């Protein structure tokens, strides 16, 4: 009986001991894991712009490759666009023709034409003088009664006709000297300006065949290969503006702790094993998929997630897009 009692007591002790161990482990787990603060992970992002041409062409040369750092004005790529060169030849021909017509309008008639008009005027003046003298003699004879009225009227009509002819010849001569009309000269000048505009437009297209860096940054992606044809507006490469960096975090609203634009918090960067102070400049909800509404009878509710963007206050050399940033939910706001 004693052995059985002892064995029974040992079993009870073992059971109670195992139960005590389970309870202790549960309490420790609750205290340890239940109190572990949530972490919020984000990443570094940078501004980026794409290099593209307004004209289609074939990639003739790539002056940079992925990872190169470029400055404003550096040549990035050269395109071959023979169609644009042909259009330039046409535009320059049209400009030359318009310039010649404008010069013709400004210079007026040729010297030979002006001289011919002058001779016709002088001839008409001589005829007018003879007709005027003849009319005077006939008028005197008519006054003396030896000339009929019919002859006097004929001489007067001839005089008037020669006078009109002389005036017309003088007008032709004046027009030859003056050249084209003001409206014609203005129209010719407008044609020249239009042709020059077409040439400038084609030159701007030709400039597009040489792509240069518009901002300083790092070449992150190069899309076409040498010899490939790219269309108008098609991206050739992407440039990351390394000086314009920020961190992006997705934060549940119960973790915001009253965070607002202008607040400063500290984030941990595993890549450098350093903390970085960051200043919030953008907060926006991420959509209507998580709205305020009751989901359970005990009053629980769904929580929205907000996109938070913050710029580093402390400069950290080597910080690159894609690097992780870690913050504790309890420390999102200093």
Structure description:
This protein is of the alpha+beta class. Helices cover 44% and strands 26% of the residues. The chain contains five helices and twelve strands. It has helices spanning 2-33, 82-107, 111-144, 149-178, 182-207, and strands spanning 39-52, 57-62, 69-70, 75-80, 210-212, 217-222, 229-230, 235-252, 264-269, 274-285, 305-312, 324-328. Strands 1, 3, 6, 8, 9, 10, 11 and 12 form an eight-stranded antiparallel β-sheet that branches. β9 and β10 (274-285) form a beta hairpin. α3 (111-144) packs antiparallel against α4. The longest helix has 34 residues, at 111-144. The radius of gyration is 48 Å and the shape is rod-shaped.
Mean pLDDT: 78
Question: How helical, in percent, are the residues?
Answer: 40-55%
> What count of helical segments does DSSP give?
5
Query: Rg from C-alpha positions?
Result: 48 Å
SSE topology string? HEEEEHHHHEEEEEEEE
**Shape, principal axes of CA atoms:** rod-shaped
Q: Give me the count of strands.
A: 12
Q: Structural class of the secondary structure composition?
A: alpha+beta
Approximate strand percentage: 25-35%
Biggest sheet details: 8 strands, antiparallel
Distance from first to last alpha carbon: 70 Å
Low-confidence stretches: 290-298
């Amino acid at each position: 009986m004693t052995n059985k009692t002892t064995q029974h007591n040992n079993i009870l002790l073992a059971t109670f001991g195992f139960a005590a161990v389970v309870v202790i482990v549960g309490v420790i787990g609750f205290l340890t894991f239940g109190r572990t603060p949530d972490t919020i992970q984000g990443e570094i992002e940078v501004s980026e712009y794409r290099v593209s041409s307004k004209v289609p062409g074939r990639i003739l040369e790539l002056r940079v490759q992925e990872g190169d750092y470029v400055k404003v004005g550096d040549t990035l790529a050269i395109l071959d666009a023979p169609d644009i060169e042909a259009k330039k030849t046409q535009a320059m021909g049209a400009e030359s023709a318009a310039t010649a017509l404008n010069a013709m309008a400004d210079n007026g008639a040729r010297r030979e034409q002006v001289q011919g008009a002058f001779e016709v005027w002088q001839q008409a003046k001589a005829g007018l003088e003879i007709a005027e003298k003849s009319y005077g003699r006939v008028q005197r004879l008519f006054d003396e009664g030896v000339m009929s009225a019919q002859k006097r009227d004929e001489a007067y009509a001839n005089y008037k006709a020669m006078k009109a002819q002389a005036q017309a010849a003088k007008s032709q001569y004046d027009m030859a000297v003056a050249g084209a009309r003001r409206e014609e000269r203005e129209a010719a000048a407008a044609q020249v300006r239009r042709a020059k505009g077409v040439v400038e437009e084609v030159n701007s297209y030709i400039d597009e065949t040489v792509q240069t860096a518009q901002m300083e940054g790092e070449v992150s992606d190069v899309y076409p290969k040498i010899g490939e044809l790219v269309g108008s507006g098609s991206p050739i490469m992407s440039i990351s503006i390394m000086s314009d960096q920020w961190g992006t975090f997705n934060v549940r609203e119960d973790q915001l702790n009253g965070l607002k634009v202008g607040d400063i918090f500290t984030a941990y960067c595993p890549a450098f094993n350093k903390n970085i102070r960051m200043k919030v400049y953008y907060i926006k909800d991420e959509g209507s998929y998580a709205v305020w509404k009751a989901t359970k009878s005990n009053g629980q509710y769904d929580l929205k997630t907000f996109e938070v963007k913050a710029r580093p206050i402390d400069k950290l050399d080597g910080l690159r897009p894609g690097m992780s940033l870690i913050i504790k939910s309890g420390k999102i706001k200093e």
